[in-house]
Specification:
214 residues, alpha/beta, Rossmann fold, seven-stranded mixed β-sheet, 7 strands, 37% helix
Length: 214
């Protein structure tokens, strides 16, 4: 695919840090948080799952290992991260579809997924893209399909750990408060959006959200 001219924030913050992203994320507790997100999503055999901002494919590989009978699709704007995801999937011997694109312009048909998942991506989006991303997620979900997300809490949601301040500025997380996220989900047309849990990681507290398409 042709590289988009749009800008984006890479998963590791800088392209040159990409090789360090997986080991650092695992060290900070990312894999455990993603496992909790998978459990929360209550996946069923035959489900079609989309992860927006899939990065290097860690969550998708976890899903396929735990639920081999689901179909997984990942989308990310970063071609280098997708190349790494393809290599990881090949080593793990798990099939998946990986597409290059942006979460607010999902290139999929209406009502084509049972679940849309997002892990540690939402805070990367500029404010204007957050609402569009949620609207796009709702469009591609089947009626009754669910959107599940885990991401860092906003600075309004409690005391922040020093590592949170090191990795993420208040400005970057200012729109990640529970009130703001739930409001954006509701504005996008989702039903009964709510924060359903939180977890402590070395890099700070993260929040888990669930909502559904009417």
């Amino acid at each position: 695919m042709v590289e988009s001219s749009r800008t984006y924030l890479p998963a590791a913050g800088h392209h040159w840090l990409l090789p360090l992203y997986d080991p650092v994320a695992k060290l900070l507790g990312g894999d455990r948080a993603r496992k909790a997100l998978i459990d929360q999503a209550d996946l069923r055999p035959g489900d079609r799952i989309l992860e927006i901002g899939c990065g290097t494919g860690t969550l998708l590989i976890q899903i396929k290992r735990l639920h081999p009978d689901v179909d997984v699709v990942g989308l990310d704007p970063d071609s280098k991260a997708l190349d790494r995801a393809r290599r990881k999937a090949a080593r793990a011997k798990v099939p998946m579809q990986l597409d290059q694109g942006f979460a607010d312009e999902l290139p999929y048909a209406k009502a084509s997924f049972d679940r849309v998942l997002s892990s540690f991506m939402f805070h990367h989006l500029p404010m204007e893209a957050k609402g569009k991303t949620l609207q796009a997620a709702r469009r591609v979900l089947k009626p009754g399909g669910e959107f599940h997300m885990v991401d860092f809490e906003g600075p309004q949601d409690g005391k922040r750990r020093w590592l949170t301040c090191l990795f993420h500025s208040d400005d970057q997380l200012k729109d990640n408060s529970e009130a703001r996220v739930v409001s954006l989900m509701r504005q996008a047309g989702f039903a009964d959006p709510k924060k359903i849990g939180r977890r402590a990681m070395l890099a700070g507290h993260v929040a888990f959200y669930r909502t559904s398409a009417p």
